[in-house]
Write a structure and sequence with these properties.
Largest sheet: none
Number of strands: 0
Length: 260
Amino acid sequence: MTSEPAVTSSTVSPLAAIALKVAGAIAILSALLDFLILLIPPNLTNVQWQLATTTQLVDRGIVPLVGMALLLTGFWLDSSVGKATQRKSLTTDLRFWVCALASVLGLIYLLLTLLHLNAVRLSSQAALAQVSTEAGEAATQLQQRLSTELSQQQTQLGALLENDDLLAQAIQSGQLPADIEQYRDDPEGLTQFLQQRADQAQQQIETEIGTRRTQAERQVKVEAWRSGIRISVISLLLAAGYSIIGWLGLRRLLSLTRAA
């Protein structure tokens, strides 16, 4: 009765170890293939490509870390049931390559933190410059439109002032103020009147443009801050996790090799 659980345990443990190793290896290899596809074709001079690539690499960075944990757990399970791992040297030990890969990925994710922050900075600067350019173009178009409308209104009002019936209809409908008649024989005063109305309209529209520009700039800065904080923190955590697995694993394997 006591031997049956022992037999079952000795049968299940190696199977679980194999399953962990296979699952871990598949997770690592599939993630590395995914990373390779993301990097092809490279476009290092394109800030948006840098931003998108670093974001995706960081978002998918947990997959090989989990794969390494599964793989190393499988080796640990083998040793816990008394199955010795025979190796002639470190280079023939799969755990060595896993720990070496973890060390490399730790360094890569540390560099990705800096690269992503720089890409966020450049992208934010480009977006702010675009907002400024669009606001300047809108102001220029406004000035041109108001100048054209001023000339047209001056011509139309000049014609209305010469026609009493049409002028009375425009005043009654509210299109023109009642004191417009004072400019009948004062073209310079009419020009000043129209210029004043144009200046008021310009000031109002420029205020709206400035408000929209401020809102757009604030939105750009908020999005840049969110992206920079999220990706950089996750990347640093991944760098720490990979470095711990890599350096502690390599140190452990080196001590075992020397002891052997």
